[in-house]
Structure formats: C-alpha cells, structure tokens
C-alpha cells in the first residue's frame, strides 16, 4: 500500500475513494474500504490529519496512531492512502473547492462515505454535493452501529469488550515501553492525545504472552508479563486489551503483592 500526502503524487487513474477520518478503522470503516475494493476501481482511502475536531478547537482522544491507521487500512484492502492535511485554511474551504483540489486530481470516479458524512466549511457538503460534482456516491449506513465517538466513550468508561465489538478486534494500547523497577514489568507511555481506558487492571496480550495492564490515571501504564520474557527497552509496545477491567487498580501497598492473576477475564 502506498501512502502520500500530496494529491499530485498519486497517478490519475480510475479510483473508488473511501472518504473519512478513519480513526480506529472500526467495522464501519472497513465496510467502506470493502465497498471501494469491490468496485473494480483502484481502492483508495482519503483520510485526514490532524483530526478535524482538533483544528476546530474540540478535544478528541484518538483510538489509533496514524501509523497504526495505515496498517489497518492496508489490511482492509486499500491500495493507496492519501493523507489530506486538515488546517485552519482547509476548514474555511467550500466543499466544492476541496473536492476539486483533492478528489478530482487523483482520478476519483466513485466516492464511498458513511451515512451522514459532512465536509467543507460549516459542514455544508454531503453526499449530494459530491453527486452534483459528477462523482458516483455510495452512502453506507453505520455497520453494527459502529462509530469512533461511541468507541471512544466505551474506552473512557473502561468498557473494552463493547469497544472490541465495534472495532471488530481488541482495543490496542500502544506506546513507548521502558523498564519498570520491578522484574517482569514495563511502563508504557501512550502517545499524547490517544485514548486510554478508565483506571483499572485489564487482562490482555502482548508479544504473544498474557499480560496485566494497570491503568492508574495520569502517568504511564504498568504492564506485567506472565512469563520471563526479555523486552529490549525502549521499544514501541502494543498491548491488546479485549476485556473490561478485572478489578479496580490497587493501592501502592497491594500492587506489589499481586502475583500474575492472569486467569481473571482472560480471553483465549
């Protein structure tokens, strides 16, 4: 899969473009890419960075990093990804001007969007706008009710099983890992602005081994591995957390006495 940030860098070929932010690349997002893939045109994703809400002054915690978004879009079947910069200038552009500057130059023939998709200044553009510009448009309903906003709400509440149901895979906590003072433990510092579950102890997997991840609020997440696994730190570590918290986070005096209770809520 090719990733570009400039429409002029992509060859002008007949394309089916799945259009959206694609944070989390959940079930609904993969449905858009699958529709693009099934058209016989070059399946392409046009996504935004930074997240439009951040540019518009509304805080948002991202479910996945941009690099992980690319990996998941490749797995979904995208041949090309165009990362459209979202700036204050872009936020002031009309929907028509944006489509002519971004979609037309790459050869877009068909656009696939989620139900209710809006774009352009004051969110004035929609599927009908794209049709008036001559694009064929597929507007798909939310698959299984999946939306990035709902998933973020589940993560913030510690409802990781519900989040996994909408994602179509376990929620992943990713960050730079450093060695903790205690043996068999590392500290993960998630990328600033990414979603972190509510405080609690969560069972999951990392490096192919069962782990417990302790989220205590602010600061790094402690990950304990249920095996003597050597982790070369610092390293980027991804932890799959498919279940709700197995217990509330213990106080400092209890934390040191917990000894690999990985049977609680462990997914196979």
From TrEMBL:
<keyword id="KW-0547">Nucleotide-binding</keyword>
<dbReference type="Pfam" id="PF06574">
    <property type="entry name" value="FAD_syn"/>
</dbReference>
<dbReference type="GO" id="GO:0003919">
    <property type="term" value="F:FMN adenylyltransferase activity"/>
</dbReference>
<dbReference type="GO" id="GO:0005524">
    <property type="term" value="F:ATP binding"/>
</dbReference>
<dbReference type="GO" id="GO:0009231">
    <property type="term" value="P:riboflavin biosynthetic process"/>
</dbReference>
<dbReference type="InterPro" id="IPR015864">
    <property type="entry name" value="FAD_synthase"/>
</dbReference>
<protein>
    <recommendedName>
        <fullName>FAD synthase</fullName>
        <ecNumber>2.7.7.2</ecNumber>
    </recommendedName>
</protein>
<dbReference type="InterPro" id="IPR014729">
    <property type="entry name" value="Rossmann-like_a/b/a_fold"/>
</dbReference>
<keyword id="KW-0274">FAD</keyword>
<keyword id="KW-0285">Flavoprotein</keyword>
<keyword id="KW-0288">FMN</keyword>
<keyword id="KW-0548">Nucleotidyltransferase</keyword>
<comment type="pathway">
    <text>Cofactor biosynthesis; FAD biosynthesis; FAD from FMN: step 1/1.</text>
</comment>
<dbReference type="GO" id="GO:0006747">
    <property type="term" value="P:FAD biosynthetic process"/>
</dbReference>
<feature type="domain" description="FAD synthetase">
    <location>
        <begin position="15"/>
        <end position="137"/>
    </location>
</feature>
<keyword id="KW-0808">Transferase</keyword>
<keyword id="KW-0067">ATP-binding</keyword>
